[in-house]
Description:
five-stranded mixed beta sheet
Amino acid sequence: MQKTTSPLLLRATVLACAAMAMTTAAHAQTTTLRLSTYVNEVDIRYEGFKKFAELVSAKTSGRVKVEVFPSSTLHGWSEGVDAMLGGVSDISWVSADKRLPCYRVTSLYPVAIDMKKQIELDAAYAALIAPEAAKAGLVPLINSNYSYDQEWWFKNANTDLAKLDGKLVRSIGPMVSMMIETWGGKPVFIAPKEVFQSAERGVVDGINMGVATYSAWKLWGVMPHMVQSNLFYGNIQYMISKRKFDALSPADQKALQAAAAESEVWLKPQYERWVDESMADAVKQGGTVTKISADKRKALLNSVVGKWTGEVDAGCGPELAGKVRALFSKNAL
């Protein structure tokens, strides 16, 4: 005797299959972006990345999800480009990579910047760098000038930057190394995660680093004397793999970029307050903050800018180099 399927059972089966198909389709339409950062979870910028992820999810109605990986857990300091091109991460900070020759010599640049219009300045800088990034398979996404106050720390108070007298000073890249050498010191490259041990063990006598990173990694306790000089424009950008970006719909591309811009604006006052509080707390614990005069700043910058001009011209080409310098000059103190 042949068995027949009841209409109710058949309808339930059809509905279940349809639900499974809809769930599968929904998962297939979701894009996950892996964001790699060297900042740790204590750092206020980590909250900025979380805010960015929230905004992306909201603006894309959940079609795009951002997963944040702090403390260089996906890759090391100099490996951002390779990590994105190889699929290890989708969004990463980009250090002084030779495949981005203009960015390499201008993302950290010797100039005293007026920070009143920094959001607009950062956006203009990113636009200048975008064509070069595209050739390398990347798209600038998040500017980090608002969270990148590059400064100096030493074992002893009242260190004169112009007279480093052979001191071993941690450097972030080629331009800072040139500065250290010009002022009589010896640059030592150390990745952010390794700086604490290096300072604690006496591998270096001084450290050049962003204030937020320095504070988040608790470095005030091992090298407590800061020289606050305001000698840099710094925009170590977070870029996204162009392949990953191009795979998004035009609407989701715009949403991603809008979320990035909005997160920058949201983070700026949070960052400034957090850094001020971190510095004040360090001073209470015995640290010192020595601010240099405007004349001293000018003299320090004059001693290095000319030496860096050729590097910028070679890395950017004369036309782009001129545009970058004009942008910085327009926003200088």
